[in-house]
Amino acid sequence: MRMVDIIEKKREGHFLSVEEINFVIQGYVQGKIPDYQVSAWLMAIFFQGMTDQESAALTKAMLESGDKIDLSKISGIKVDKHSTGGVGDKTTLILGPLVAACGAKVAKLSGRGLGHTGGTLDKLESIDGCRINLTEEEFINQVNQIGIAVAGQTGEIVPADKLLYALRDVTGTVPSIPLIASSIMSKKLASGADVICLDVKIGDGAFMKTIEDARELSRIMVSIGESFGKNVTAFITDMDQPLGHAIGNRLEVKEAIETLSGNGPEDLVELCTDIASHMIYYAKQAPTLEAAKAMALEKLNNGEALAKFNEFITAQGGALPELSHFIEVKEIYPFKAKKAGFVKQIKALNIGLTSMKLGGGRETKEDVIDPMVGVLLQKKIGEKVSIGDTLAFVYANHPVDSDILSTLEDAFFIVEYQVDKPKIILEVIS
Ligand code: URA
Q1: Is residue 106 in contact with ligand 1, taking CB distance under 6 Å?
Q2: Does the C-beta of 160 come closer than 6 Å to ligand 1?
Q3: What is the distance between the alpha carbons of residues 24 and 87, in angstroms, rounded to a whole number?
Q4: Does 209 share its domain with 132?
C-alpha cells in the first residue's frame, strides 16, 4: 500500500477500506508516514468527508493505537459523559455524584482546560488536597466502594489522537465532523464505559456553530458508538451564553455544591437532570426516563446527591471549606450595565476569555492557574436590565484592567425589545 494512493483516493471522493485507514493510522503513529502526507490526507477528508463506516474504522484504528481502560473489575453498568467544551460547564461535578447517588457507576477520566473553556480536573484541583492522579487500582476500588471516581488519564490513551489533533490544529482541519467524531469517540471508547452521554454545544465559542452541523456530529458519534455495542445519547445544547452563573474554577465548584443542594440555576439544573435521567435509565436504575428524572430531582432536593459529592471529594483527599469562605480574592468588581433593555446574548467565548485573562484559565499548557478568580453572572438571557445594574461580578486578584473590561463589554448584547429565555437542550439524538 502507498500513502499517496490513499490520499488520491480520498481526494477523488472514494471510500477508504478498513485496511487503508489502519495503514495510515498505524504508519503515522509508528513514524513511518510523514506529517506532510497525513496533512494532505486530513485535508482530503475535510473536503470529501467520510461515510459512517469509514468514521467507525478510523475510530477503531485510533482506539487501537494505545491503552484501553479495563473497567471489568467494576460491578454494574458504567456511565460516562463528555462535553464538546463549554464555558461555565461544571456538569461533571454535579452529574457524577448525582447519578452515583442513583446507583449508576461513574468511572470518569477527565481533562484540563485550555483557552476559554475550563476542565473538570482544574475544578477538582481547586479544592484543597483533592487528588486527580489516582492509580488504576485506586480508581477502580473507589468506584466499587462509593460509585464514583474522577481522575486524569494514566498511560497512553489514543496516542493517535494527540498526534492527529496537533496536526489538525496547524493545517486548518480541526472543524471536520468525521475527524471530530472519531477523535472524541476513540477517547470515550478507550475509557471503557457502557453508557455514554455526549453534550454537543452549539453557539459562540463552541466547535459547532449551526444546529445542522451539531446534528450531523451527534448522529455520527451515536452511530460509531452503536458499531461498538455502546449505548450513546447526544444532547445538542445551547451555548449562546455560559452555563449557570459561575465561570472560574472555585466559583464553579461552589455553584455545583449549590446545585447539588437543590439551589442551582435553572439551565444547569435542567441540563444535569435531563442528562442524568438518560444515564440512570440506561444504567437500569429506573424503569422509565420519567422515573429516572424524578429520581434525579429527588436526590438533588433530599441531600443525597450532595452527600455523595462530599463522599467523593473526601475519598480523593479533598477538604471543602464552608461555603461562606469558599472564595477569597482581593477584589470583587461589579461590572455594570451602561444600557437599559433586555439581555439578548452573553458571548460565552468572551466570558471564558475574561476568566482566562484574570488568571483562571491557561493560554498555554504550562500556565499555572489561579483557582479563585472568575466571573459570576448576575443577568442571563431574557432578563431585564436598567442602567447601573450589575451584569456580573468579576473576582480578581489583580486590578481589573481595560482589556478585561472591554472583553466583558463585548460579551453582553442588550436590546430594547423583550427576549425569550432560550431552551438549554435543543435536541436529543440516540
Ligand atoms: N474535542 C476533541 O476531543 N476532539 C476534537 O477533534 C474536537 C473536540
Answers
A1: no
A2: no
A3: 35
A4: yes
